[in-house]
Write a structure and sequence with these properties.
This protein is of the alpha/beta class. It has a single domain, classed as 3-Layer(aba) Sandwich (Rossmann fold). The chain is built from 4 helices and 5 strands. Helix 1 packs across helix 4. The chain is globular.
C-alpha cells in the first residue's frame, strides 16, 4: 500500500483530501505543516513523517505564505530528494515551482479531487521515462 503524507494549512480541506485518498486505497498521514506545528524541514532537518511516506502531497500555502512555501518545498526536496512531491495549488501560477531538477514537483492546479490527486500521485511515482540513445 502506498503511504502518502498530506501537508495542508486548512484542516477541513486536508481532511477531504485524506478521506479521498483513503478511498483510493492509500495509507495516509496528515500534518498541518508549519502553520500548526514546529516544522523540522524549515529548520533544515529531516521530517519523521516524510521519512515514512512514499509520496508527499503539499498544499502550496502549507507554510502560510508564498515565500515560506518556496523555502519549505525547496528544503523538503533537498532533505528528502528521493520522495516525490505533489504540490497542490488552487489555480495560482507560481514563479518558483520546478518540474525538473533537484527541486522538481508534480503540480496539481485547481480542485484537488480524489481522482485528480490519485492521478497526480501516480504520475509523481512513475519512473522517469527512458531516454532513447
Amino acid at each position: 500500500m502506498t503511504r502518502v503524507l498530506v501537508v495542508h494549512h486548512d484542516l477541513d480541506l486536508a481532511g477531504q483530501e485524506v478521506d479521498s485518498l483513503r478511498r483510493f486505497g492509500y495509507e495516509v498521514t496528515e500534518c498541518g505543516g508549519p502553520t500548526r506545528n514546529q516544522c523540522p524541514v524549515l529548520a533544515g532537518r529531516s521530517c519523521d513523517l516524510a521519512e515514512d511516506a512514499d509520496v508527499l502531497v503539499y498544499d502550496v500555502w502549507a507554510s502560510g505564505d508564498a515565500e515560506g512555501s518556496q523555502t519549505l518545498i525547496e528544503n523538503i526536496r533537498d532533505i528528502h530528494p528521493d520522495t516525490p512531491v505533489v504540490l497542490t495549488s488552487p489555480g495560482l501560477d507560481l514563479s518558483w515551482e520546478e518540474s525538473t531538477g533537484r527541486h522538481a514537483v508534480t503540480m496539481l492546479r485547481g480542485q484537488p479531487t480524489g481522482a485528480r490527486l490519485h492521478e497526480a500521485i501516480q504520475l509523481a511515482l512513475a519512473p522517469p521515462a527512458a531516454t532513447e540513445t
